[in-house]
C-alpha cells in the first residue's frame, strides 16, 4: 500500500490527487513549490515506473507546470526529480520569478524554509482547485 | 533552424544525437553530467513542445537515466529542467554518488566547475556510444 514518505509528510501539505500522483505543497512560502508523488511503492528512479506510469507522471508534471505558469504568472517553471535525500520518487514543479529569493539559482538549500500559515495554505489549496482540470481531486481539509 | 544556445555551446561538449535531443556533456568533471537539448526552436518550457515531442523528451531522459545508472553505477540519477539562466529548453540528467562533491545537495552552483581534459572527454564519448541503443548517433570528433 502506498504510504507517503515521512519526511515529505513533515515538510508538505497534501493538496489533492491526480490519477497517478499525490499533489503536495512544499512548506516554504518563498516559492509556489509543488511536488508530485506517484502513488506507487518502492520506486526511487523515474525509469523504475512502468512505461504507462512514466508517461502519466510526465504528463501530470507538464500539466501542472502549464497550469501554474498561467495561474501564478511565473517567469519560469522548474521541474525536477532528484531524490538524494528522500528516495521515494517525487517530482518538484516550482514557480519561479526573477525577483524571488533564490533566482536564478535553483531553490534547494538556498534559504531556510519560510513556513506558511493556515490561511495561506487554504488559499493555495483553493487556487489550485479552481485552475486544475477535472481529473484533479482536491483534498478535503 | 535549430541552433544550440551559445552558453550551452561554451559550457559543454556535443556527444551525439537522439531522435529528438542533442546529447551534451557538461564541462564539469565533478559529476557525470549530461544535458539533453530538444532540437526545436523557441521553446523554453517543456509544455511548449508538441505532445509528441514531450513524450519523446521524457522517454529520452528516462532512457539516458537508466543507461547511465547502470553504466556509471550511480547511487542516484537527478533529472531536471530549470532554464533560469539559459532559457533554451534543456534537460539535465546527472549521475550522483553519495561521495560526490555536492551530495546530497543538487549540483548547480555548489562548486566551481572542474574542466575535463581532451582524453577524459574522448573516453566519456566512447563510453556513452558503447552503452546507448541504436537510435543514438555518436558525434564524430
Molecular structure report:
2 copies of one chain form a homodimer. Chain A has 3 helices and 6 strands, in the order H-E-E-E-H-E-E-H-E. In chain A, a hairpin with a 6-residue loop joins strand 2 and strand 3. In chain A, 29% of the residues lie in helices and 23% in strands. The model of chain A has no long low-confidence stretch (mean pLDDT 97). Chain A is globular, with a radius of gyration of 14 Å. Chain A is α+β, with helices and mostly antiparallel strands and 141 residues long. In chain A, strands 4-5-3-2-1-6 form a 6-stranded antiparallel beta sheet. At the A-B interface, helix 2 and strand 4 of A face helix 2 and strand 4 of B.
Architecture blueprint of SSEs:
Two copies of one chain form a homodimer.
Chain A: H1 6-11, E1 12-17, E2 21-26, E3 33-38, H2 51-71, E4 76-81, E5 91-96, H3 118-131, E6 137-138
